[in-house]
Amino acid sequence: MERPLTYYGNPVLREKGKSVETFDSDLKRLVSDMIETMYAEEGIGLAAQQIGIAQQICVVDVRPPKESEIHFNYSYDGKSTPLDLFMPLAIINPEVEITDATKSLYQEGCLSFPNILGNVSRAIAIRCQFQDTDGHHHTLEADGLLARCILHEVDHLNGILFIDAMEKKDLQKNLTRIKQLKRAHKS
Asked: CB-side exposure of 73: number of CA atoms within 13 Å?
């Protein structure tokens, strides 16, 4: 079931999510709803805070379109598993380690900030340890868009928003819209 999005101005977006301790059918339903919401909104990632829930849960799906020029390297539990076998991916209780701190600048958007885009500098490679909906532990190593997407969503889980890391000139360019959004959705 698609869930309503939480927009900038709602205080839940600044809350650090609580760890998930119960891996049950309610969790599976929540993750399924998050994936459905992410697809309906045409996003590549969604954090629980973005649907009003302060928990350590996010979902991602960065499978590129067939003729895409988007390339990234990854290994899932030490293997080159085809993306279709684990995407969409639920990431629960993530712990992220930067494996290459070289920074890359890329224009990001966020479903909680409609029509607002800005360049954000992020590390180019990560290792993410997390649990799936059954509570099993996994390790994902990634670079490129997959690493960036995970870093963006894990920031959400810690109450950090992409505007906090946005290049100053892009932030200035979007400031009026950001303030309007905050006023419209302040609770």
From this structure: 8
Residue range 41-71, pLDDT digits in tens = 999 999 999 999 999 999 999 987 665 666 7
Could you tell me the two tokens for 40?
A: 């309906």
Under 8 Å between Cβ of 138 and 129: yes
Measured CA to CA, the distance from residue 28 to residue 119 in angstroms comes to: 34
Residue ranges covered by each domain of the chain: 11-185
User: What gap in Å lies between CA 175 and CA 20, rounded to an integer?
Assistant: 35
Topology (CATH level 3) of domain 11-185: Peptide Deformylase (3.90.45)
Query: Any idea which residues carry the catalytic annotation?
Result: 153
33 neighbors 90 (Cβ within 8 angstroms): no
Greatest extent of the chain over all pairs of C-alpha atoms, in Å: 46
Give the tokens for residue 112.
């909680």
Beta carbons of 139 and 89 less than 8 angstroms apart:
no
60/22 Cα distance (integer angstroms):
21
